[in-house]
Amino acid sequence: MSFFTHLGxxxxxxxxxFTKPENWRMxxxxxxxxxxxxxxxxxxxxxxxxxxxxxVTTVQTAYQLVxxxxxQATIAQIVRDSMILELAPTVVSIVLAGVIGSKIASELGxxxxxxxxxxxxxxxxxxxxxxxxxxxxxxxxxxxxxxVISAVLGIWGGRTAGSMAGILATDIFDIGLRQNLNLYxxxxxxxxxxxxxxxxxxxxxxxxxxVKGGALEIGRASTSAVVVSCILILLADYAxxxxxx
Length: 245
Description:
By secondary structure, this protein is mainly α. It is built from 8 helices and no strands.
Protein backbone atom coordinates (compact mmCIF):
# COMPACT_ATOMS: atom_id res chain seq x y z
CA MET A 1 0.00 0.00 0.00
CA SER A 2 2.91 2.35 0.65
CA PHE A 3 3.96 2.03 -3.01
CA PHE A 4 0.48 3.00 -4.26
CA THR A 5 0.33 5.87 -1.77
CA HIS A 6 3.60 7.30 -3.07
CA LEU A 7 2.55 6.69 -6.68
CA GLY A 8 -0.76 8.49 -6.16
CA UNK A 9 0.90 11.46 -4.44
CA UNK A 10 3.49 11.62 -7.21
CA UNK A 11 0.83 11.68 -9.95
CA UNK A 12 -1.20 14.30 -8.08
CA UNK A 13 1.90 16.48 -7.81
CA UNK A 14 2.46 16.22 -11.57
CA UNK A 15 -1.20 16.98 -12.22
CA UNK A 16 -1.07 20.04 -9.97
CA UNK A 17 1.73 21.57 -12.05
CA PHE A 18 -0.42 22.04 -15.14
CA THR A 19 -2.35 25.16 -14.21
CA LYS A 20 -2.26 28.60 -15.73
CA PRO A 21 0.67 30.57 -14.21
CA GLU A 22 -0.27 33.70 -12.28
CA ASN A 23 2.74 35.70 -13.45
CA TRP A 24 4.60 34.54 -16.55
CA ARG A 25 7.58 36.82 -15.89
CA MET A 26 8.11 35.36 -12.43
CA UNK A 27 7.88 31.81 -13.77
CA UNK A 28 10.35 32.58 -16.58
CA UNK A 29 12.85 34.01 -14.08
CA UNK A 30 12.60 30.90 -11.91
CA UNK A 31 12.97 28.66 -14.97
CA UNK A 32 16.14 30.43 -16.11
CA UNK A 33 17.54 30.31 -12.57
CA UNK A 34 17.06 26.54 -12.47
CA UNK A 35 18.67 26.10 -15.89
CA UNK A 36 21.76 27.99 -14.75
CA UNK A 37 22.00 26.21 -11.38
CA UNK A 38 21.52 22.74 -12.86
CA UNK A 39 23.78 23.26 -15.86
CA UNK A 40 26.65 25.29 -14.39
CA UNK A 41 26.67 23.35 -11.13
CA UNK A 42 26.95 19.95 -12.79
CA UNK A 43 29.20 20.87 -15.74
CA UNK A 44 32.61 20.37 -14.03
CA UNK A 45 31.86 16.84 -12.79
CA UNK A 46 30.38 15.91 -16.20
CA UNK A 47 33.55 17.08 -17.97
CA UNK A 48 35.86 15.14 -15.64
CA UNK A 49 33.82 11.92 -15.74
CA UNK A 50 33.38 12.02 -19.53
CA UNK A 51 37.07 12.49 -20.30
CA UNK A 52 38.12 9.59 -18.09
CA UNK A 53 35.28 7.34 -19.29
CA UNK A 54 36.43 7.76 -22.88
CA UNK A 55 40.09 7.29 -21.96
CA VAL A 56 39.46 4.13 -19.93
CA THR A 57 37.19 2.68 -22.63
CA THR A 58 39.91 3.16 -25.25
CA VAL A 59 42.62 1.55 -23.13
CA GLN A 60 40.49 -1.43 -22.06
CA THR A 61 39.16 -2.01 -25.57
CA ALA A 62 42.70 -2.03 -26.97
CA TYR A 63 43.74 -4.44 -24.20
CA GLN A 64 41.00 -6.92 -25.13
CA LEU A 65 41.33 -6.65 -28.93
CA VAL A 66 44.72 -8.30 -29.18
CA UNK A 67 44.03 -10.21 -32.39
CA UNK A 68 45.96 -8.95 -35.43
CA UNK A 69 42.90 -9.83 -37.54
CA UNK A 70 40.92 -6.98 -35.94
CA UNK A 71 41.67 -3.54 -37.46
CA GLN A 72 42.78 -0.86 -35.03
CA ALA A 73 40.03 1.44 -36.28
CA THR A 74 37.53 -0.91 -34.62
CA ILE A 75 38.64 0.50 -31.26
CA ALA A 76 37.33 3.93 -32.26
CA GLN A 77 34.00 2.45 -33.34
CA ILE A 78 33.57 0.67 -30.01
CA VAL A 79 34.47 3.80 -28.04
CA ARG A 80 32.09 5.91 -30.13
CA ASP A 81 29.12 3.56 -29.81
CA SER A 82 29.77 2.85 -26.12
CA MET A 83 29.84 6.54 -25.24
CA ILE A 84 26.78 7.43 -27.30
CA LEU A 85 24.58 4.46 -26.43
CA GLU A 86 25.37 3.74 -22.80
CA LEU A 87 28.18 5.50 -20.98
CA ALA A 88 27.21 9.12 -21.63
CA PRO A 89 23.43 8.81 -21.06
CA THR A 90 23.30 6.24 -18.26
CA VAL A 91 26.48 6.73 -16.23
CA VAL A 92 26.31 10.52 -16.38
CA SER A 93 22.60 10.46 -15.48
CA ILE A 94 23.34 8.34 -12.40
CA VAL A 95 25.98 10.86 -11.36
CA LEU A 96 23.57 13.74 -12.05
CA ALA A 97 20.96 12.00 -9.89
CA GLY A 98 23.35 12.48 -6.98
CA VAL A 99 24.38 16.02 -7.89
CA ILE A 100 21.10 17.51 -9.12
CA GLY A 101 18.62 15.21 -7.40
CA SER A 102 19.95 15.77 -3.89
CA LYS A 103 20.04 19.53 -4.52
CA ILE A 104 16.41 19.66 -5.65
CA ALA A 105 15.20 17.42 -2.81
CA SER A 106 17.08 19.32 -0.10
CA GLU A 107 16.02 22.72 -1.47
CA LEU A 108 12.32 21.85 -1.51
CA GLY A 109 12.60 19.98 1.78
CA UNK A 110 14.13 22.99 3.48
CA UNK A 111 11.32 25.18 2.13
CA UNK A 112 8.76 22.69 3.41
CA UNK A 113 10.02 22.40 6.99
CA UNK A 114 10.63 26.16 7.24
CA UNK A 115 6.98 26.66 6.14
CA UNK A 116 7.90 28.75 3.11
CA UNK A 117 5.73 26.51 0.90
CA UNK A 118 2.80 26.93 3.30
CA UNK A 119 3.25 30.71 3.19
CA UNK A 120 3.18 30.69 -0.62
CA UNK A 121 0.02 28.59 -0.63
CA UNK A 122 -1.67 30.98 1.81
CA UNK A 123 -0.92 33.80 -0.64
CA UNK A 124 -2.78 31.83 -3.32
CA UNK A 125 0.27 30.68 -5.29
CA UNK A 126 0.21 27.19 -6.76
CA UNK A 127 3.46 25.93 -5.27
CA UNK A 128 3.53 22.79 -7.42
CA UNK A 129 3.50 24.92 -10.55
CA UNK A 130 5.82 27.65 -9.23
CA UNK A 131 8.42 25.49 -7.46
CA UNK A 132 8.33 22.07 -9.14
CA UNK A 133 7.58 22.78 -12.80
CA UNK A 134 10.57 25.13 -13.44
CA UNK A 135 12.91 22.51 -11.98
CA UNK A 136 11.53 19.75 -14.21
CA UNK A 137 11.53 21.93 -17.34
CA UNK A 138 15.03 23.19 -16.56
CA UNK A 139 16.28 19.62 -16.18
CA UNK A 140 14.61 18.60 -19.46
CA UNK A 141 16.47 21.39 -21.24
CA UNK A 142 19.88 21.19 -19.55
CA UNK A 143 20.50 17.48 -18.82
CA UNK A 144 20.26 16.36 -22.50
CA UNK A 145 22.74 19.13 -23.35
CA UNK A 146 25.09 17.87 -20.64
CA UNK A 147 24.81 14.32 -22.00
CA VAL A 148 25.62 15.50 -25.55
CA ILE A 149 28.66 17.33 -24.17
CA SER A 150 29.59 14.18 -22.25
CA ALA A 151 29.47 12.02 -25.39
CA VAL A 152 31.63 14.45 -27.37
CA LEU A 153 34.17 14.85 -24.58
CA GLY A 154 34.26 11.09 -23.98
CA ILE A 155 35.10 10.40 -27.62
CA TRP A 156 37.71 13.15 -27.59
CA GLY A 157 39.16 11.80 -24.34
CA GLY A 158 39.40 8.34 -25.88
CA ARG A 159 41.10 9.76 -28.96
CA THR A 160 43.62 11.67 -26.84
CA ALA A 161 44.30 8.72 -24.52
CA GLY A 162 44.86 6.39 -27.47
CA SER A 163 47.37 8.79 -28.98
CA MET A 164 49.22 9.50 -25.70
CA ALA A 165 49.42 5.80 -24.76
CA GLY A 166 50.64 4.82 -28.23
CA ILE A 167 47.64 2.52 -28.77
CA LEU A 168 46.54 3.99 -32.09
CA ALA A 169 47.23 7.14 -34.04
CA THR A 170 44.70 9.95 -34.21
CA ASP A 171 44.22 9.57 -37.97
CA ILE A 172 43.31 5.88 -37.55
CA PHE A 173 40.95 6.82 -34.71
CA ASP A 174 39.28 9.41 -36.94
CA ILE A 175 38.82 6.82 -39.70
CA GLY A 176 37.15 4.48 -37.20
CA LEU A 177 34.85 7.24 -35.99
CA ARG A 178 33.44 7.66 -39.49
CA GLN A 179 33.00 3.97 -40.23
CA ASN A 180 29.57 2.32 -39.83
CA LEU A 181 28.03 5.29 -38.08
CA ASN A 182 24.37 4.66 -37.28
CA LEU A 183 22.62 8.00 -36.74
CA TYR A 184 19.76 6.24 -34.92
CA UNK A 185 22.15 5.66 -32.02
CA UNK A 186 22.26 9.44 -31.46
CA UNK A 187 18.45 9.64 -31.56
CA UNK A 188 18.18 6.75 -29.11
CA UNK A 189 20.64 8.46 -26.77
CA UNK A 190 18.47 11.60 -26.81
CA UNK A 191 15.38 9.52 -25.98
CA UNK A 192 17.22 8.16 -22.97
CA UNK A 193 18.46 11.62 -22.01
CA UNK A 194 14.98 13.16 -21.83
CA UNK A 195 13.58 10.15 -19.98
CA UNK A 196 16.36 10.19 -17.39
CA UNK A 197 16.10 13.98 -16.99
CA UNK A 198 12.40 13.69 -16.18
CA UNK A 199 13.02 10.86 -13.72
CA UNK A 200 15.79 12.72 -11.88
CA UNK A 201 13.92 16.02 -11.56
CA UNK A 202 10.41 14.75 -10.82
CA UNK A 203 11.39 12.05 -8.30
CA UNK A 204 13.69 14.42 -6.42
CA UNK A 205 11.04 17.14 -6.41
CA UNK A 206 8.46 14.68 -5.08
CA UNK A 207 10.60 13.58 -2.13
CA UNK A 208 11.61 17.14 -1.29
CA UNK A 209 8.10 18.56 -1.63
CA UNK A 210 6.56 15.97 0.72
CA VAL A 211 9.13 16.10 3.52
CA LYS A 212 7.68 15.92 7.03
CA GLY A 213 9.75 16.56 10.14
CA GLY A 214 13.03 18.38 10.55
CA ALA A 215 16.59 18.50 9.26
CA LEU A 216 17.07 14.75 9.69
CA GLU A 217 14.14 14.03 7.39
CA ILE A 218 15.62 16.34 4.72
CA GLY A 219 18.73 14.16 4.63
CA ARG A 220 16.65 11.00 4.42
CA ALA A 221 14.52 12.48 1.64
CA SER A 222 17.62 13.45 -0.35
CA THR A 223 19.05 9.95 0.05
CA SER A 224 15.75 8.32 -0.93
CA ALA A 225 15.44 10.59 -3.97
CA VAL A 226 18.92 9.62 -5.23
CA VAL A 227 18.42 5.89 -4.60
CA VAL A 228 14.98 5.73 -6.23
CA SER A 229 16.14 7.85 -9.18
CA CYS A 230 19.12 5.55 -9.82
CA ILE A 231 16.93 2.44 -9.68
CA LEU A 232 14.35 3.95 -12.05
CA ILE A 233 17.10 5.11 -14.43
CA LEU A 234 18.43 1.55 -14.69
CA LEU A 235 14.91 0.15 -15.18
CA ALA A 236 14.13 2.76 -17.84
CA ASP A 237 17.48 2.05 -19.51
CA TYR A 238 16.60 -1.62 -19.89
CA ALA A 239 13.02 -0.88 -20.98
CA UNK A 240 14.08 1.62 -23.66
CA UNK A 241 16.77 -0.72 -24.96
CA UNK A 242 14.31 -3.61 -25.17
CA UNK A 243 11.64 -1.52 -26.90
CA UNK A 244 13.63 0.73 -29.25
CA UNK A 245 16.72 -1.27 -30.23
